[in-house]
Amino acid sequence: MTYTVTSKMNDVKVEVSTFEQFFKEKAVYPIAIDTYQRPYVWNVNKVKELLNDLLEHIETQPNVPYYMGSILLHKNNEKEKLFIIDGQQRMTTLSILYYLLHRRLIEGKIAMEFQSPESIKNIKNIQKFFQHEENKAWKEKVSLLFPNIQFTFITTPSEDLAFTFFDTQNDRGVKLEPTDLLKAYHLRAINNLTIQKRCAKDWENIQNNKPILHKKGDFTVELFTKYLSRARTWRGQKQITQANDEAMLTEFMRNTKQSDDDKSIELFPNFHNTYGAKLHVKNNGDFEVQMKENSQLTSSLPFTLRQPISKGMGYFLFTKRYAEVIHLLFTNQNVTNKEIKRFRDFYENIWKNLSVYLKELFILATLMYYDKFGEQQLFRFSLWLDHLLGAIRLEKQNVVKQAPMNFLKDSENNLLDVISHAFTPEEVFTFLLRCSEKVDTYTKDNVEKGKGVRGYYKERILTYYGKNSFDYKESWMDQLVKELEDGDTV
Predict the structure, then answer these.
(1) In whole angstroms, what is the distance from residue 449 CA to residue 88 CA?
(2) What's the CA gap between 195 and 201, in Å, rounded?
(3) Count of alpha carbons within 13 Å of 185, Cβ hemisphere only?
(4) If exposure means fewest CB atoms within 10 Å of the residue's CB, which of 63, 279, 330, 375 is most exposed?
(5) Which of 2-11, 173-182, 289-298 has the highest mean pLDDT?
(6) 144-176 pLDDT, tens per residue?
(7) Is the Cβ–Cβ distance between 307 and 203 less than 8 Å?
(8) Residues 127, 119: Cα–Cα separation, whole Å
């Protein structure tokens, strides 16, 4: 069955077809996967789930086609390809199963290539599992049904129109994160194929960075949901709310600035950039700064967390910069800078294994501070920040998700705003000292050291400072910084 839906400017072709029939007869161009698509993420368990559904369908409805939802395609006449916008995971999985059944790829127009290490690993694991002798029983039954697997194929003549159909939920429950859509949106804004491929590769590398809050996962999700979105949207004290997907897409997609061209990114005055006017991207993806008259380069990537973001290449450079800053501060094992090493030692000893919600704010505030002042008094900042957030840890047996927001709302000013607006670190420390004057947690302390989550924190912090109680704690921070600095001068 074939239907044609006509819009004001474009024709959208909608047709119901079997998997085999579409590849062999219906596809006008080879089916391909564009560079911005995420890797193939289905594992053996996910494919087994699909097979179980297929086998159950054979037993209960042997004469009824098995419907697997819709596949969204973009017809690219220039490249003569049908690019999969939504449905890559299902198309890839069925292609693997077809190959295992017939020892060849499906006949017809197919041009799906996989360069991602994650894609290649998952495909090989699936092949190994189903090629094993004890797993071959499924072949005979599934091969009978395979010709009757059906989809609704939706083909659009433009990418923009395709993305108006884009559904952020995969048919089999693998949720597409807002970061997947942001990646696709900004890659589509880059016309230079070399730069586009480099940005896609950089993004994949960032995805594979080790998360800070959890043992594994897509790091771009953590980077945007826990740090970059909050750094930009948690302003004032009335607008601090839990992030949602729609707000993230608005901030990083709809609010981005259109550049003059692919290779030109506007720069804005900030602490890191006094003289740069524009960032120009070369064909190989490297960059150079166009200077204002009579100026000198002060930083290779003079971005700040709250600056406007340029659509396309600007978005990827922004992401890469802050992924590298997070790595430098929290996971890089080859740090040589004295100030960062002291900060890291404090984080590893005290904060690495504390409440995830407080840790999110600790990391976010540190990122804001480093973005503004670099290594200047970074260690001292971490001690004072711990003094305030540690009081919350000691007060509450259970720290809830709202704790970071409540901290920012209940203070006389939003700490993130204070950092963003400050001209010197001392302005930040003056604010932290004023906040600490209202904290009486340490003077009325009744937490038993080493017992429970509160006692664990108390034991760690007292051990770190070499103290037996919290008496005169406010004097500890700057005294420790002074002792370490004096030790360096001896």
Answers:
(1) 53
(2) 10
(3) 23
(4) 63
(5) 173-182
(6) 777 778 888 888 887 666 565 554 334 444 456
(7) no
(8) 12
What b-and-e string marks burial along 25-61, b requiring 16 or more CB atoms within 10 Å of the CB? ebbebbbbbbbbbbbbbbeeebbeebbeebeebbeee
Band of residue 296 on the pLDDT scale cut at 50, 70, 90? very low
CA–CA distance, 323 with 215 (Å, rounded to integer) = 17
* Nearest C-alpha neighbor of 204 from the set 121, 119, 123, 116: 116
**Phi and psi, residue 412, nearest 5°:** -65, -30
Are 311 and 186 in contact by the 8 Å Cβ rule? The answer is yes
The residue assigned the tokens 């919600």 is 357
Q: Which residue type, as a one-letter code, is found at position 438? A: K
State the maximum Cα–Cα separation within the chain, in Å, rounded to a whole number. 86
| Pick from 230, 268, 252, 272: nearest CA to 316 | 252
Q: Are 71 and 152 in contact (CB under 8 A)?
A: yes
CA pair distance 464, 350, nearest whole angstrom = 8
CB 276 within 8 A of CB 267: yes
Phi, psi of 273 (to 5 degrees): -140, 110
